[in-house]
Amino acid sequence: MQLARVIGDVVATQKDPAFSGVRLLVLQPVNADGQDAGRPLVAVDSVGAGVGERVFFVRGKEASFPFHPTEVPTDAGVVGIIDHWSTVEGPGFSPGDRR
Amino acid sequence: MLLARIVGTVVATRKDPRLVSNKLLMARAVDPRDSTKLEGGYLVAVDTVDAGVGETVLIVSGSSARMASGMKDCPVDAAIVGIVDTVDLGE
Predict the structure, then answer these.
(1) Is residue B89 situated within a structural domain?
(2) In chain B, what residues touch A39 (CB-CB under 8 Å)?
(3) Cβ-Cβ contacts under 8 Å, B90 against chain A
(4) Does residue B38 lie in a domain region?
(5) Residue partners of B83: CB distance under 8 A and separation at least 6
(6) Is B58 within 8 Å of A10 when comparing Cβ atoms?
(7) Is it the case that residue A41 has pLDDT exceeding 90?
(8) Residue B72 domain boundaries
(9) Which positions ≥6 away from A96 have C-beta within 8 Å?
(10) Has residue B53 been placed in a domain?
(11) What is the pLDDT of residue B91?
(12) Total structural domains within chain B
């Protein structure tokens, strides 16, 4: 799983029927310092995350497991909203760090 | 999943029988922050939502592409699963 910041959401009317009722979020992966790392991507949301929140997401087929038994055709999914994180190298992220 | 722009079509007469009567399109990734900016290489993707050239779409890649409607057990690793109306960047 990887850390990311939710930077937006996607609206699509014409889509795979398995996506109905599923929210699509634009994620910017971040490193342990909270800095942007890599390209933004689109992920399905199963935890109710919103723009500005720090989350962790899973890549691959496993991203569809929260919607079981519906087979949502996704390769990325938000599976947790982060309250705060820290590492031995640095402070990481706490709720006051919003930007 | 990837935001991408459809930039062309692919026609193949001789192909895996499980790909028969599936539409193949050429796509390039777009930057969600600037939808005019195309980046990276070209991707051939199977269309499952009737997308067309010029449209911005959602592409699922890897083994998850086989979960797209009608793609069960098909030899695909990229499928178009949605046509994007809008991308709202809240930041």
Answers:
(1) no
(2) 29, 31, 39
(3) 6-9, 51-52
(4) yes
(5) A12, A13, A14, A15, B49, B50, B51, B55, B56, B57, B58
(6) yes
(7) yes
(8) 2-83
(9) none
(10) yes
(11) 64
(12) 1
User: pLDDT band for position A96 (50/70/90)?
Assistant: confident
**Segment B15-64, tens digit of pLDDT:** 999 999 999 999 999 999 988 999 989 999 999 999 999 999 999 999 99
Separation CA A75–CA A57 (nearest Å): 10
What count of CB pairs under 8 Å joins A to B? 109
Which among B60, B81, B87 has the least Cβ separation from residue A26? B87
Chain A residues within an 8 Å CB radius of B43: none
pTM above 0.90, yes or no: yes
In a domain, B90, yes or no: no
ipTM at complex level: 0.90
Query: How far does A50 lie from chain B, in Å, by closest CA?
Result: 9
CATH of the domain at B67: 2.40.50.220
Q: What does the block give as tokens for A91?
A: 């402070």
Interface membership of A82 toward B (CB under 8 Å): no
Using a CB-CB cut-off of 8 Å, the residues of chain A touching B89 are: 7-8, 26
Q: Which amino acid is at A1?
A: M
pLDDT value at residue A99: 54
